[in-house]
Amino acid sequence: MKTIVWDVDDVLNDLMRVWFEDWAASSGASRSVRYEQLTSNPPHRILNIDHSQYLASLDDFRVSGKAGKMAPIAEVLDWFSRYGDAAHHVALTATPLSAGHVSAEWVMRNYGQWIRSFNVIPSQRPGVEAPQYHAKKHDFLAWWGKADVVVDDNEENIEGARSLGIRAVLFPRPWNGSTLKVAEALVELTQILLSPARDLPQKV
After folding, report:
1. C-alpha triplet 178, 46, 125: angle, nearest 5°
2. Is 51 within 8 Å of 42 (Cβ atoms)?
3. Mean per-residue pLDDT for 4-17?
């Protein structure tokens, strides 16, 4: 049985979209910028705010209770309902340690029927000191050595997985180079999942 490693934010949920809508409404920001125009992540320059201001707002959103109320992406949840029992599933997220418990609870509440393992690569924040076991997701995947497929919206994470011989699906978002729709990306994942094991590249 293959093992799929899932990013959490903006793959299992719509964090950036939901945060952006909340931030725009509460800050009185001009609605001339739409979510679809957030072509870089982080999007602080597009929104004309400081990077530190963006991180503080996002972190506040994560622990405010609002992030915990996010709905899972319907198409992804439907995919799990159809194919979830055909693979092992692991969550691997980059989030500040202050919000790790929120993300873990959200994942287990919404996807716990299938996802049984939750892992964090801590996003660095000023004044927060913690052991750094793995600097990037690539480092975790290399250490862990069990992933067959990675699903992520970050192109660097996708390339890192592929450099280890792991198949990867780039989840379409405005800030990455995917030309697929969400449904098409999930079809790609299904094809990888259902392909014979011999069709997977040899891990290095």
Report:
1. 90
2. yes
3. 98
